[in-house]
Amino acid sequence: MKKVFSARKRLTRYFTYLLVTTLVLSLAYSVYSSLTYDSQLRYCSEAALDLSSGSLTQETDRLALFNRHMTASSLFFRQAASLSGNDFTSISLLYQIQSIMRDTVPNTGLIMVFDDSGGAFRFIYGSSVLDNSVLRREHMQAAHVLQESCLSVPETDLDRWLVLECDPFVFLYRVNRYRHLYICSALELNAFAALTEQAGERSPQLFFDRDGVFITGRDSAEASVLRPESVYGLRSLFTNYNLTHREIPSLPIGLTMVMPKDGFWAFSRVSFLVMLSISAICIILYLQAYRMMKRFFVAPLRQISTLSKQMADVDEENIPQLRDPEPLEELDTLRESLNMLAAQKVHLRKRQEDEEAEKEHALLQYYQLQTRSHFFLNCLKSLYGMLETRAFTPMQEMIISFSNHLRYIFHDNLSQVPLRAEMDEVRDYHRIISMDSRQPLILTQEISPNAMTCLVPPLIVQTFLENSYKYNGRGMEALNFTVRIDRMEYEGRERLRIRLSDDGLGFSRDSLEELNRQTQDPGFDQYHIGISNLRRRMGILYKGDYDLAFFNGVSGGANVLISIPVQEEGGNGLDSAACG
Fold first, then answer.
1. What is the pLDDT of residue 274?
2. Per the omega criterion (within 30 degrees of 0), is the bond before 320 cis?
3. Beta carbons of 41 and 261 less than 8 angstroms apart
4. Is residue 168 within 8 Å of 102, Cβ to Cβ?
C-alpha cells in the first residue's frame, strides 16, 4: 500500500527547507565575517604584543647589563663598596653614583643603592612612576619595602629578575651585590603598561606571573572575567575581547594583550547589512511564492476537505456552499462543481437515512415483540387455570393487567416512552406475576419526581424485573426487587440513572462476564433474550451513547446500572394514556 502524503504539509516542508537553508547560509557568512575580523584583530594583537614584549625585553636587558657593569666595572661603585659606611657618605662618591643612576633610570622604573645594614640608602624614580614628577609618601614606602625585599633575597636569586607586589605598585626588579653594597634596578609594571598605551596602543597590557594570576590590572580583569590565556576560533566570537598571551622565558612574568572588539561593527556593518538585505529579500520572495502556491494548489484541496466535514451534520435546508467567487476561472469552476457535489451528496444521504430509519423501525418492533411469546403462553395457561377453579375476580384483574400489557407491547413505537408509562407496565407485570406465582415478589420504587417525564426505551425496567424473577435462585422464598431512578450531571451532560437490584443469589461469574461484554454468543442469548434485545434496541436508539453495567452487591443480589441521555416528554414517544 502506497504511503499517503499531505500536499499542504509537503509544500510547507519544502519551503521550510528553503528558508532554513537561506538562514543557515546567512549565519555561515556572518560567522565567516566574524572569524575574518577576529583573525585580523588577533594579527594586530600579536603585533602589539611583539612590540610590548620587545620593549620590555630590551629594557630589562639594559638594566641587567647596567647592574652587572656597576658591580663589576664601575670605579665609583667598587670604591664605595670598599669603604666603610661613614666613608661612603662622602659627597663626591654620592654625586658620581647618583649621576650614573639618574642617567640610567628608566622612565617606568627605579634604581636604588644601599648597603647590607640598610644605611647609605639612595634611590631615583623614573618620571613616569611619579605623579607630575612629585615624590610622594607612597613612593618612599615602596622604595623601603623593595629594599627590605632585596636584603632578604638569597644568594641564588641575585642577578635574577624577581617580582614584588607592593600596592599600588608592582615591581619587576633585579638586585646585584658587590661586597656589602647592593644595587637594585626595577620596572614598575603598571607604569610600563600605561606608557605603552600612551605610545599609541589601543588596548592595555596586563602582566601576570607564571601561576596564571594577573598582577597588574587585576580589578579590571576580574570585572571583565578575563584570564591570562589566548582565545582563538569560534570561542572568541562569544567574548567581548581578543586575548593574546605570551610567556617570556627570560622573565618570571608573561604578557596578555587584551583587545576590545568595539570596532567589530565598523568593520563588518557593510557586509552584514548587505547579507541581511539579501536574506530578507529571499525570505519575502519565498513567503510570497509559498502563499501563491498554497492559494492555487492547497486551498482547493482544503475547500474540498472543509466542505466534506460540513456535510456531516446538515439537512436539505442547510446545504453547505462555497459562496465567495474566485478570481481565477479554473478555481471558480471548481467551486461551482463542489457546490453541486455537496447538494447531491446531501440528497443521497437523506434518502439513505430514510431507508435506514425504516429498517430500524422494523428491527425495534421485532426486538420488542421477540421477548413476549413465552410470556403470552404462561398468561393464557394461568387464565385457563383460574377458569377451571372459577376464580373469576383474580381472573378479571389478570385480564385487565394482561390487556394493558398487550396494548403496551403492540403499540407501534420507533423511539421511547415516558418513564411513568414504563412504571405502569412494571406494576401491571408485577400484578400478573403475583397472581400467577406462589413465590412472593416485593416491588420497591424510589423514583425522583422530575424523572417521571423522561423518555426511556420500552421494557427497560420490566425486562430486568422478569429476569430477576426467573433467575433469582431463592426458590419459593420472598424476593425483593428495588427500582431507583434519578437524574444526575455527568461530564457536563444531564443523564438519567436507573439502578435495579434484588436480594437473590446474584449473577454467576460466567453470566457476569457475558453480560458485561458488548456482544454475547448465541448460546447465552437463548437464555437471556430480553436483555440482549434491550441492548440492541438501546444501541439503535442512542447510537452507542448509553452505559449498561452488571454486578453483584456486597451482601449478594444482582445489580444493574443503566445511564442514558435525558430526553423530556413531548418528543417522539408514547404518552401514559396510550400505554395503559
1. 76
2. no
3. yes
4. no
pTM (predicted TM-score):
0.47
Number of neighbouring beta carbons within 10 Å of residue 509: 9
CATH superfamily, region 371-565: Histidine kinase-like ATPase, C-terminal domain (3.30.565.10)
The string of DSSP codes covering 49-77 is HHHHHHHHHHHHHHHHHHHHHHHHT-HHH
Query: In terms of Cα–Cα distance, which of 493, 485, 483 is closest to 454?
Result: 485
Q: What are the cell numbers at 265?
A: 561593527
Q: Compute the CA torsion angle 354, 359, 362, 367 (nearest 10 deg).
A: -130
Angle at which helices 329-370 and 529-542 pack, to 10 degrees?
160
Residue with cell 502563499: 291
| Interatomic CA distance for residues 394 and 402, integer angstroms | 12
**Alpha-helical regions (H) of 312-391:** 329-370, 373-388
CA quadruple 321, 325, 327, 332: dihedral sign: positive
Contact status, residue 458 vs residue 422, Cβ threshold 8 Å: yes
User: Is there a contact between 188 and 109 (Cβ–Cβ < 8 Å)?
Assistant: yes
Q: Are 539 and 520 in contact (CB under 8 A)?
A: no
Tell me how far the alpha carbon of residue 234 is from its chain's centroid: 29
Q: What's the pLDDT tens digit per position in 427-465?
A: 988 888 787 777 788 999 999 999 999 999 888 898 888
Domain limits, the chain: 314-359, 371-565
- Nearest-CA neighbor of 187 among 203, 202, 201, 205? 205
d(CA 417, CA 389): 38
Rounded to whole angstroms, how far apart are CA atoms 101 and 98?
A: 5
Q: Identify which of 151, 152, 94, 149 has the alpha carbon closest to the alpha carbon of residue 123.
A: 94
First to last CA, the chain: 60
Q: Measured between alpha carbons, how far is residue 53 from residues 41, 48, 174, 195, 249 in Å?
A: 18, 9, 18, 13, 11
Higher local confidence (pLDDT), 209 or 382: 382
**DSSP string across 70-98:** HHHT-HHHHHHHHS-HHHHT-HHHHHHHH
Exposure string over 178-213, b if 16+ CB within 10 A, otherwise e: bebbbbbbbbbbbbbbbbbeeeebebbbbbbbeeee
What is the per-residue DSSP string for 419-453? HHHHHHHHHHHHHHHHHH-SS-EEEEEEE-GGGTT
- Check residue 389 and give left, alpha or beta (phi > 0: left; psi -120 to 50: alpha): alpha
- CA 417/CA 445 separation, integer angstroms: 18
Are 477 and 514 spatial neighbours (Cβ–Cβ below 8 Å)? no
Helices (H), 122-261: 137-151, 189-198, 218-223
C-alpha cell at 343: 447538494
SS3 content of the chain, % helix, strand, coil (to 5): 55, 20, 25
Say yes or no to pLDDT of 574 above 50. Answer: no
Residue of higher predicted confidence among 384 and 523: 384
Report how many helices (DSSP H) and strands (DSSP E) the chain contains, helices first: 17, 15
580 pLDDT tier (thresholds 50, 70, 90):
very low
